[in-house]
Specification:
single chain; about 80 residues; alpha+beta; SH3 type barrels; 6-stranded antiparallel beta sheet
Amino acid sequence: MNREYKPIACGLHDELELRALRKSKIEISFTDESNSIQTIACVIDDIFSKDKIEYLKTDNGLLIRLDDIVELDGIPFNKSC
């Protein structure tokens, strides 16, 4: 199912990029395709855009839409500015 991408706040994007640069191990919670919340520990391998949607790629190859992120290291990922 295609759903509209909702861009995240610039400050949140900056925080993800910083953690990707540092190659820090993070704990991230996100909503999966079945609308369940998953929590994983990973290192951010890349952040990129494809077809006007921004993604985070983990060190194990998992792709997560940035607008699906719920929490980063225990901090709620509030999408509004």
